[in-house]
Design a protein that fits this description.
- The chain is an alpha+beta fold and about 350 residues long.
- It folds into four domains: about 30 residues; about 90 residues, conserved putative lor/sdh protein from methanococcus maripaludis s2 fold; about 90 residues, Efflux pump adaptor protein, beta barrel domain (Elongation Factor Tu (Ef-tu), domain 3, Beta Barrel), CATH 2.40.30; about 60 residues, Helix hairpin bin (Helix Hairpins), CATH 1.10.287.
- It contains three helices and 19 strands.
- A hairpin with a 2-residue loop joins β15 and β16.
- The longest helix has 30 residues.
- The two termini are about 55 Å apart.
- About 10% of the residues have low confidence.
Length: about 350
């Protein structure tokens, strides 16, 4: 009796499971949600191939750099007597930035000038006496040498005095000053930075596999977290001849217009470098691709049937994939419902917006 009861319970359980499976197959009134029987039409979504230009891009992280950037430092020690710039404002080439006390150097210059005046007079007098035979050639040579030494001393005094006035070597923007009037500065001490920010440089790196695709003059678009919603353009002007052996990457620099001084050195940038451009590329939605190992397949709709077709892919961008071989411009591919298909299955194509 117990065996009969066990058999009855097992039979009821089997019926419940079978009913659940059947209900799952036909729920929502869509019998195609189950694996179709032979000869049954499968409802799928499909899209025609698009033919349009596509450009390969490589994304990278970069940093904005000044076109030129230097730190102004004195060559002589001295007391700051004047500051000739405003912080954060443009300066012109030759404009005074910092002046040091030059009183000692002015005195040295005056001393050198007086000594040179005397030595020139002595040299001229000796030359006249030598012509009359009243002086020796040795005396003439000594006076001439003294005059040359005094000329060099005068030039040195002038150079030292000139170095008490630190001027801008080119047009740029002054940074924040590190000193004030009255400070005593030493040789090599930081005074102020000077940057050229128009144009501004974008520096970034790309993997070495793109070496053959990178060229001078290519366009780079970039965005900044500091200025959301804005896109800027730059042009590649320099490619590092050496590949970084640690990161296996290639350093690239591009220039961007910054006439409004909106961009600032040091900003973090998200760059996109345009590489190869294909004018008549065959494009399909990314979801149409069926990967199998290292190969790629799609279901092509031909005469109301699905034909499994191997394809070779190319550029991938914004949810679309370039098909290098395997499809033509007039083909249509299945974009949803591939799991229910097999090669040669009859299909009923509906739009993606259908319920």
């Amino acid at each position: 009796m117990r065996d009969i009861r066990k058999i009855g319970v097992a039979a009821v359980a089997a019926l419940v499971v079978a009913a659940g499976v059947y209900w799952g197959m036909v729920r929502d009134g869509d019998p195609a949600s189950a694996v179709p029987a032979a000869g049954r039409t499968v409802i799928v979504e499909a899209a025609p191939v698009q033919v349009r230009p596509v450009q390969q891009e490589v994304n990278a992280i970069g940093t904005l750099r000044s076109e030129d950037s230097i730190v102004m430092r004195p060559e002589l020690a001295g007391v700051v007597t004047a500051i000739g710039f405003k912080e954060g404002q443009p300066v012109r080439k030759g404009q005074l930035l910092v002046a040091l006390d030059g009183s000692i150097h002015e005195a040295e210059l005056a001393q050198a000038q007086a000594s040179l005046t005397l030595s020139r007079a002595n040299n001229d007098r000796t030359a006249e006496l030598l012509a009359k035979g009243a002086a020796s050639q040795r005396t003439r040579d000594e006076n001439l040498s003294k005059m040359r030494m005094d000329e060099a001393t005068l030039a040195l005094a002038r150079a030292r005095l000139a170095k008490t006035r630190i001027t801008a070597p080119y047009d740029g923007v002054a940074g924040l000053r590190k000193v004030a009037v009255g400070d005593y500065v030493t040789p090599g001490q930081d005074l102020v930075t000077l940057d050229v920010i128009d144009p501004i440089k974008l520096e970034f790196r790309v993997p070495e596999i793109y070496l053959a695709h990178v060229a001078m003059g290519q366009t780079v678009t970039f965005q900044l977290d500091a200025l959301p919603g804005q896109t800027f353009k730059a042009e590649v002007y320099a490619i590092d001849p050496q590949v970084d052996v640690d990161g296996r990457s290639l350093a690239i620099r591009a220039r961007a217009d910054n006439s409004g001084r909106t961009l600032r050195p040091g900003l973090f940038a998200r760059a996109s470098l345009g590489l190869a451009r294909h004018e008549n590329a065959i494009l399909i939605p990314e979801e149409a691709i069926i990967p199998q190992g290292t190969d790629h397949f799609v279901y092509k709709v031909t005469g109301g049937k699905a034909a499994m077709t191997q394809v070779k892919t190319g550029i991938r961008r914004d949810g679309v994939v370039e098909i290098v071989s395997g499809l033509g411009a007039a083909d249509t591919v299945v974009t949803a419902g591939q799991l229910k298909l097999h090669d040669g299955a009859a299909v009923n194509v509906r739009s993606a917006s259908a319920d």
